[in-house]
Amino acid sequence: MADVLLAVGTQKGLFLGRRGRGRGGRHWEFSGPHFPMQAVYSLAIDTRGGTPRLLAGADSSHWGPSVFRSDDLGASWHEPARPAVKFPEDTGVSLERVWQLHPAGPAAPGVVYAGTQPGALFRSEDGGETFGFVRSLWEHPQRPQWEAGFGGQAVHTVVTHPADADLVTVAVSTGGVYRSKDGGGHWSPSNTGVQATFLPEERRFPEFGQCVHKIAQDAVDPDRLYLQNHGGVYRSDDGGATWQDIGGGLPADFGFAVATHRHRGDVAYVFPLRADAYRMPPDHRCRVFRTEDAGATWAALSAGLPEEPCYGVVLRDAMSTDDGDPGGVYFGNRNGEVYASADQGDTWEQAAAHLPDVLCVRAAVV
Q1: Cα 30–Cα 31–Cα 34 angle in degrees, nearest 5
Q2: I need a labelling partner for 345 at 20 to 30 A (CA). Which of 276, 307, 332, 338 fits?
Q3: Cβ-contact 157, 170 below 8 angstroms
Q4: DSSP 317
């Protein structure tokens, strides 16, 4: 029976959990912290090759940010002698954080994208060992007008088309969604239908400047995307060209995370929060919401989750799904709790507790 590998990046290091598939598997067993006292904001489990490769974007307060890789499921780690992600000198800036590590689809073997703070995109063709600067996004004429979100000004989401390596979508906080149809040569804002709720009413739908929190891609239709905004949950059926609001059935439309089922189409998950000045779960209840009809309806999932008042916030990359059958769902919160479901979210168990703030979660069957 294959194991599930659960990677949990926290404010003070990386923790790796393993267990057998299904609810009859053994208890979760965690190792770590790897990279103690380093904030791990980005993770990837690249299963495209024969051996899974783990990538971790860790941030040392002393040495600065770096990208580590492991080809033995975390038993050992390699850090390049020279920074894997580095801004060219002529930009006049330096890397503050790697917010996203995204292995591209089957159409681009070996390609891994890194989204960073300051808001920029880097591309690797060797599985994440070295990265090149995507200058076209950095030099986009709208980039100087991107503002910084509460967490900083960053490219935090990368989505690639599994069958067309030239189609790349990124989300910027707070620049909005940008798409490239030529592999990153040119970029266009792609925010039609998405509100910027923090702007005056007459400016609610700008060409760019939305505070997008996360985007996830449908498993069956790669042109169907789900977007969690700073106020609003949206769906696109045309690869991000246009968006429609699907948050009407949720108790709140603010939140950070959105994830999709890895095999079933039209299935997505969010963790709603009350907006802005009160960023806690509605009614202080720990609930994941799932749609099985592309956002037409939503159902609350809470079996096995805490029944007492809940105040934990799930950040943008702290919810993930695995590639198993029937499909696992995982999330961690800023209280240091990690919850896992082996049955698509129907029931839950606590996988870990008392960790530092959970910043990101990734899972895969290995």
Answers
A1: 135
A2: 276
A3: yes
A4: B
Rounded to an integer, what distance in angstroms lies between the CA atom of residue 331 and that of residue 16? 14
Q: Which residues contact 49 (CB under 8 A, 6 or more apart)?
A: 127
Which pTM does this prediction carry? Answer: 0.96
Q: How many CB atoms lie within 10 A of CB 223?
A: 14
Distance between CA atoms of 73 and 155, rounded to whole angstroms? 27
Nearest in space to 70 (alpha carbons), one of 46, 48, 47, 54: 54
Nearest to 253 by CA among 238, 270, 225, 233: 233
Distance CA 361, CA 69 (A): 16
Place of tokens 């969604």: 177
